[in-house]
Amino acid sequence: MAEKLRIGVLGASGYTGADLVRLAARHPNMEIAVLTANSHAGKPMRAVFKHFAHIDLPDLVTVEEADWGSVDAVFCGLPHGTTHRITREIFATHPHVKIVDMSADFRLRDPAIYQDWYGVEHTATDIQPEAVYGLTEVYRDQIRDARLIACPGCYPTAVLISLIPLAKARLIDAEDIVIDAKSGVSGAGRGLKENTLFCEAGEGLSPYSVGKHRHMAEIEQEVGLAAGIADLRVNFTPHLIPMSRGELCTSYVRLSGGAKPSDLRQALIEAYADEPFVTVAEEGVLPQTQMVRGSNYVVVNVVPDRIPGRAIVISTLDNLVKGSAGQAVQNFNLAFGLDETTGIEQLPLFP
């Protein structure tokens, strides 16, 4: 077995950080050495998350107390706008450390676009060019050699896996895409927000950030690159659904170049034939969140629209695993020359 690689987790008290810890704790090549959470510094991890009562973990510390020189990789689960400074500091003082960023701070190639969408200045423009967009199935070769991996958001991961092969093959009109997306409440983070309180989110379905969700920028960036279209615009509307985890995206597309819905499905089958975590469902089987809960898998399929010349592309994943922590571990494995599936082969949990 390969030697243990020591890791640190920034923002370990959030849902994303906690799921990263959950996966890392049973990863045969990871040793968890540093866990930060400024608001819970000094506490044992089991005091913040009861499901870690069964394992020994380092106590939580502040970012300032963390010893980044003692680790081989840092996973960042901090909110956007808080990663730039820390990443720049680690880059400057610990050149051997690789960073797998689960925040949004390095996903967008153009810092000006980042500032437009996130409302904060990009303060690490000097290292932005080193960031590789961490959509594993598309950028696998670049991820292997990257020092800074910018993992995609959960919505973009689900959407891009289903649409990039179709846009590349010019089977769809990339300028006519309508995406209806739904996510479990954990996608909103662990911080206290009125709209995620049980009485507010339970027994209801709510759209949010309509026409202005920040993940639109990633989707437009990557579908635009695949289709060869600069300044692409897509229609994207997210919804909050009353469950803890899970995500389902339904994309309505116009066919192009005489393509049929069956051509789209065949293109996805060919694109993902050798991918360990992407499944194209059997014809007529609709992707459901139950197919992926707690796992690193994505399920996609194509359904003909009753409107001539259009098709419906459906994709589903667990927003905390393949949509975040699981994909981060997948990219870590690539960056350190491990088998890509190591530590993330858990089957979906059902019921």
TrEMBL record:
It is found in: Cytoplasm. The active site is at C154. This is N-acetyl-gamma-glutamyl-phosphate reductase. Coiled coil: none annotated. Residues 6-146 form the Semialdehyde dehydrogenase NAD-binding domain. Signal peptide: none annotated. PROSITE patterns: ARGC. Catalyzes the NADPH-dependent reduction of N-acetyl-5-glutamyl phosphate to yield N-acetyl-L-glutamate 5-semialdehyde. It catalyses: N-acetyl-L-glutamate 5-semialdehyde + phosphate + NADP(+) = N-acetyl-L-glutamyl 5-phosphate + NADPH + H(+). The lineage of its organism: Bacteria, Pseudomonadati, Pseudomonadota, Alphaproteobacteria, Hyphomicrobiales. Keywords: Amino-acid biosynthesis, Arginine biosynthesis, Cytoplasm, NADP, Oxidoreductase. Pathway: Amino-acid biosynthesis; L-arginine biosynthesis; N(2)-acetyl-L-ornithine from L-glutamate: step 3/4. Its EC number is 1.2.1.38. The gene is argC. Belongs to the NAGSA dehydrogenase family. Type 1 subfamily.
